[in-house]
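Bumping with the actual sequence this time:
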Amino acid sequence: MPAKDSRLVVEIDGDVTRVSFLERNVLEEALIQRIGDEIGQIIDQTANPKLLISFKGVEHLSSAALGMLININNKVRKKGGQLRLAHIDPQIYEVFTITKLNKLFQIHEDTQQAQSSFR
């Protein structure tokens, strides 16, 4: 589970782990590394992880944060799990579209929609 100084909010709902950010800007390399490590620990502790990452309140993401998401997606898939993203700001979603990451990730309007998409 996340450490006391975590920059994440982690909630377990049945077999789905929901992760959201305390930061509005996910830009700094050290922060991204810490977040990636924390989410990696969650994935490592679960047999077939069902991970929902909510970006509600996040206004800026760096390219390093996008790289972290790709790594998380690969890690989840290796364990036979599923990843969903939700609440992505329209400006950030535009970057997902330009980089074609919207084809890699299952992105939903809100967490309820994302939650119900798990099989």
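The tokens above came from a reply further down the thread. The longest strand covers residues 8-13.
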